[in-house]
Amino acid sequence: MSGHSKWATIHRKKGLLDQQRGKIFQKLAKEIMVAAKGGSPDPSQNAALRLAVDKAKAQNMPKDNIQKAIEKATGGADGANYENVRYEGYGHGGVAFMVDCLTDNRNRTASQVRSCFTKAGGNLGTDGSVSYLFERKGSIVIPADYDEDTMMMVALDAGASDFEKVEDTYVITTDQNAFTAVRDALEENSVKEFLECELTYVPTMEVTLDEEGMEKVIKLVDSLEELDDVQDVYYNLKEE
C-alpha cells in the first residue's frame, strides 16, 4: 500500500504483518506463482519473479514457502488461472484509490471491491480515472545498521532519486527504471535484509483530511486488504 508518509507506510505494513501473517503469505504465494507461470522458474532469469520473491523476502516469508510456490506453479499442480485486474475509484473526501488484484473470477472480485467502496461511501470509476494521479516508483527500505554515508553514496550512484533516514531505517526511492540497479548495488555492498523492496505507486498529489475523515479512509483500506483477491491498495491520503 502507498499514498501517505513513508514512515506511516512502513509502520502500517509491519502492523498488518503481525496481525495477518498467514493471509499476507497466501497473497505473496499467489503473486509468486503467477510470475513463475509467466516465465522462467529461475528468479535471475525472470524479472517479475525476482520482484515477487524480493517482496516476499521483505515480508519475512520463509524460503521454503517461496520455493513451494514456485514448484507449485511450474509443476502445474495449481489449476487456478489468475489474471491481474485493477480497479480505480474514490473514497471519502475525494481520496483516490487504485486496487490491484489477482483473481480467477472477475465477477466475484468486482462485486467484492464495489461493495467495499459502496459501504464506505465511495464509488468505483472507469479505467484511468485516477491512475494519472500516481507514478511508478521503486521503494526500498533497509535497517539503519549500515554506515549512512556509505549507503547513501551506493544508492545515489546507482540511480536512486531520494535517500532518507526515517527512525531506524533508510528509505530509498528510485525511478522505475533504476530500481533493479539500486537494489543490486545495495546487495553487492553487503545489504542482506530488506524491510521493503518493491515497485509501488506514489501519488503526485495528496489529499488532506481531518482525523475523522482519515479514519473513514483507513477503514476502507482495511476492508479492501481483507479481500483474498486484493494484492495491493494505493491511495493518495496524506497521513502524517
Spatial order of strands in the largest sheet: 3-1-2-8
State the helix count.
8
Q: Alpha-carbon distance between the termini?
A: 15 Å
Briefly note the CATH topology name of the largest domain.
Answer: Alpha-Beta Plaits
Q: Overall 3D geometry?
A: globular
Name given to the CATH homologous superfamily of the largest domain:
YebC, transcriptional regulation domain
Low-pLDDT stretches are: none
CATH architecture identity of the largest domain: 2-Layer Sandwich
For the CA atoms, what is the radius of gyration? 18 Å
Structural class, please? alpha+beta
Q: Element order, helices and strands?
A: HHHHEEHEEHEEHEHE
Quick recap of the structure?
The chain is α+β, with helices and mostly antiparallel strands and 240 residues long. Helix content is 43%, strand content 23%.
What does this 3D model show about the protein?
Helices cover about 45% and strands about 25% of the residues. It is an alpha+beta fold. It folds into 3 domains: about 5-75, Integrase, N-terminal zinc-binding domain (Arc Repressor Mutant, subunit A); about 85-130 and about 205-235, Alpha-Beta Plaits (2-Layer Sandwich); about 135-205, Alpha-Beta Plaits. The strands form 2 sheets. Strands 3-1-2-8 form a 4-stranded antiparallel β-sheet. A 4-stranded antiparallel β-sheet has the order 5-6-4-7. α2 runs antiparallel to α3 (about 45-60) and α6 (about 150-155) packs across α7. The radius of gyration is 18 Å and the shape is globular.
